[in-house]
Amino acid sequence: MDYPSKLIEEAVNQISKLPGIGKKTALRLALHLIKESEASTFSLTEALNNLRSKIRFCNQCHNISDAEVCGICSSHKRDKSLLCVVEESKDVMAIENTSQYNGIYHVLGGIISPIQGVGPTDLKIESLINRLNAADSEIKEVVLALSPTMEGDTTAFYIHKRIKGLPLKVTVIARGVPVGGDLEYADEITLGRSIAGRTLFN
User: Fold this and answer.
1) Helix axes 6-15, 23-35, angle to 10 degrees
2) What is the CATH topology of the domain spanning 6-53?
3) Coil, strand, or helix at residue 87?
4) Which CATH architecture has domain 79-200?
């Protein structure tokens, strides 16, 4: 593709690195930004700079947060005896949108994937074990809400093996979520029913 300006080409190359955005969409976005006022474009770049430089993760659950402890972990309205284990922060958002869950979370930061070189030590599994073993822990049930893929099942099996000796109920979300699918793409009703209809992990 020929560009009338090296500046546009550079912008398109950077924007197209975002997931789901090809060169044509990136060009359309770049041209849109040119038409916008400088103030509007600078607001966008400032928001992105702040996102990258100031974003924090909760000390307890590792979810995206503006403070050391996120709003979910610090809320007195949440059921602290119920802990939902998910892969990423986007899964927390998806589950929260169902309004079917009132417990707390633990974000692993991914799933075990030998092909991609991701092992248990690359994830927040040890901090999960530490949370469950903590003297002041109120957790009585662990819900494994991982994507129903081979990697998700491997991760769930590994975690279950690590916590098997603890006095906990370990459940898994019902398979209303399509096998091989990602939680973020499941509709809210299906995901809500999967949380409500969770079963014991075997």
Assistant:
1) 120
2) Helicase, Ruva Protein; domain 3 (1.10.8)
3) coil
4) 3-Layer(aba) Sandwich (3.40)
Residue 33 half-sphere exposure toward CB, CA atoms < 13 A: 16
Q: Burial-class residue 186 by CB neighbours within 10 Å (0-12, 13-18, 19+).
A: buried
Contact (Cβ atoms closer than 8 angstroms) between residue 93 and residue 101: no
What residues pair up with 144 in beta bridges, in sequence order? 85, 172
Domain boundaries along the sequence of the chain: 6-53, 79-200
State which amino acid sits at residue 10: E
Go through the chain and tell me how many residues it has: 202
* CA neighbor of 150 nearest in space, from 112, 188, 120, 105: 112
Cα three-residue angle 195-181-139, rounded to 5 degrees: 30
Query: How many CB atoms are closer than 10 A to CB 5?
Result: 10
What the block records as the tokens of 176 is 């209303």
Q: What is the pTM of this model?
A: 0.77
Name the 3-class secondary structure at 147. Answer: coil
In degrees and rounded to multiples of 5, residue 143 shows phi and psi of -100, 120
Chain segment 138-176, per-residue pLDDT in tens: 999 999 999 888 899 899 999 999 999 899 999 988 765
Burial class (CB in 10 A: 0-12, 13-18, 19+), 93: middle
